[in-house]
Design brief:
Largest sheet: 7 strands, antiparallel
Low-confidence stretches: 1-17, 39-75, 100-105
Strand content: 25-35%
Number of strands: 17
Structural class: alpha+beta
Radius of gyration: 28 Å
Shape: elongated
Number of domains: 2
Mean pLDDT: 76
């Protein structure tokens, strides 16, 4: 079944909106016109012959010809359009070109990072043996979706700046607390840990008022024992509140290796934040 772009005006019944019938039953004529539709989203239609599309551009096939003379060069007629290969003539079927940009679907930074590590595990099974998340209540686990560790709020008697006091909350004047995702990547030589803090959605400063997740670095580290691991995590989650999510000043407190990493995208990424996940592992000595 032909996929049909959905966009503003597709189901608009107003008389000024030119509409286009789409078919999957026939291929375009050699001499038929060519129309291009630009829309990034698609749905499958149960009855493609009865639905329509807005027309964004039109090109006439410069090599138009017809065996029976119904079409002549520079002349074309179509009452239906198909995305198939051009074949035959005189069917009254034009060619539709569906232009959809390739975009990675994002589920938010935390889930994207988790999925990036799963992707690297599947891509490099000899170097990455296991990927798990951790909470103090559950321990290490590899089931989906991952669970978060709640960042504790400040107690009423603690004296801190207002911006610091509100930071543990996902949104100001809201009781929902931020969560932290802790990932354990079991490599051949040693486990590597990654910590990501849940982001707020903030205005991106554009004229159209779009929103994005706030910018924040991640933490990667190695550590010798499970006891040190949990003590270090508790220390990180306490101190990170005062730093409002900036890990850079906390890396010296780790008994093993520790560093922070950023979340830059790369055109070579196969999944969102693949390069960020690679960067975290590279900083801990694991090159893929």
């Amino acid at each position: 079944m032909i996929p049909v772009p959905i966009g503003s005006g597709m189901r608009d019944n107003s008389s000024h909106q030119e509409r286009l019938a789409i078919t999957s039953d026939s291929d375009p004529d050699h001499s038929g016109p060519r129309k291009s539709v630009k829309d990034p989203e698609f749905v499958e239609l149960a009855h493609p012959d009865s639905d329509v599309l807005p027309i964004l551009s039109e090109k006439i096939n410069s090599n138009s010809r017809s065996v029976h003379g119904v079409f002549s060069k520079g002349e074309a007629f179509a009452d239906r359009y198909s995305s198939g290969d051009r074949y035959g003539s005189n069917k009254g079927v034009g060619e539709i070109e569906l232009n959809a940009p390739l975009k990675l679907e994002s589920n938010g930074v935390l889930l994207d990072i988790w999925n990036a590590f799963l992707y690297l595990r599947d891509s490099f099974p000899l170097k990455i043996l296991k990927v798990e998340w951790f909470t103090f209540a559950t321990g290490f686990c590899d089931r989906n979706p991952p669970e978060l560790i709640e960042i504790k709020p400040f107690k009423k008697h603690e004296v801190v700046l207002g911006s610091v006091r509100s930071w543990p909350y996902l949104y100001p004047r809201n009781s929902a607390l931020r969560g932290a995702l802790v990932i354990k990547v079991t490599a051949k030589n040693k486990p590597i840990y990654v910590v990501e803090i849940q982001r707020r959605w903030v205005n991106d400063g554009s004229d159209d008022g779009e929103h994005k997740e706030e910018s924040m670095s991640g933490l990667c580290f190695t550590i010798d024992s499970q006891g040190d691991f949990e003590r270090f995590l508790n220390d990180v989650f306490s101190k990170i509140r005062h730093k409002r999510g900036v890990f850079k000043s906390l890396i010296d407190d780790c008994s093993g290796e520790a560093d922070y990493f950023t979340h830059k995208h790369s055109v070579l990424d196969k999944v969102n934040y693949e390069s960020a996940a690679r960067n975290a592992l590279r900083k801990m000595g694991l090159r893929l």
